Amino acid sequence: MDVSKRRILLKVIVLGDSGVGKTSLMNQYVHKKFNQQYKATIGADFVTKELHIDDKLVTLQIWDTAGQERFQSLGSAFYRGADCCVLVFDVNTLKTFNTLNHWRKEFLKQADAFDPNTFPFVLIGNKIDKEGGRSRVVCERKAREWCATMGNIPYFETSAKEDYNVDDAFLGAAKSALASEHPYDIFLSSVSETVAETQQRGGCAC
Ligand code: GDP
Ligand code: MG
């Protein structure tokens, strides 16, 4: 098997207080859409996006909550096999910044196999567009300080509404996952190859 024909699957989970813009960031990143209305629930567990990083073909599988973060009841399937955890807060709401420690600890507890010092986290400060920045209460320096104390977590300031820095933030998440020592899944990239191989084995190709 030609190794270059393989692609990498990265499971990225997005965590943070309800209302910070997690679903909006994902919608903007994957569908290039922004919805002003508040929708706490989405239908699917995850969305996927393909990207090339260096010579690698990477599929990001991005998991969003369906609003359960309000009740602290995210099941173990949500955390299982995560390759990167994206923490999101709203730069206009101090409480969402102060709960980052909680979300980080919760992730490390639920996905308990991980070494807290090496597992790749990424921090996003979202809604930087709001009121032209006048309602902002968490400055960039403060956010970067928190990242530094947590082992130099990469930090991105975004606006899901205006599609500012959203691609870079998820690219940063993918790069952090690839650079980490945590093992990720590699699978075949070409359907025709998969079919041929399956036929060789005499199995079903569907
Ligand atoms: P979630 O609960 O973390 O998934 O947050 P949502 O994505 O549902 O967003 C909550 C609310 O914030 C919605 O009304 C969004 O339209 C709004 N919102 C999300 N991102 C942004 C942003 O970058 N700028 C502004 N101004 N509003 C945003
Ligand atoms: Mg949501």
Short description:
With 206 residues, the protein is α/β, with parallel strands linked by helices. Helices cover 32% and strands 22% of the residues. It has helices spanning 22-31, 76-79, 94-98, 100-110, 140-149, 166-179, 191-201, and strands at residues 6-15, 46-53, 56-63, 84-90, 121-126, 155-157, 185-188.
Q: Overview of this structure, please?
A:
The chain has helices spanning 22-31, 76-79, 94-98, 100-110, 140-149, 166-179, 191-201, and strands at 6-15, 46-53, 56-63, 84-90, 121-126, 155-157, 185-188. With 206 residues, the protein is of the alpha/beta class. It binds guanosine-5'-diphosphate (GDP) and magnesium ion. Guanosine-5'-diphosphate (GDP) binds next to helix 1. It is a lipid-anchor. It comes from Rubroshorea leprosula.
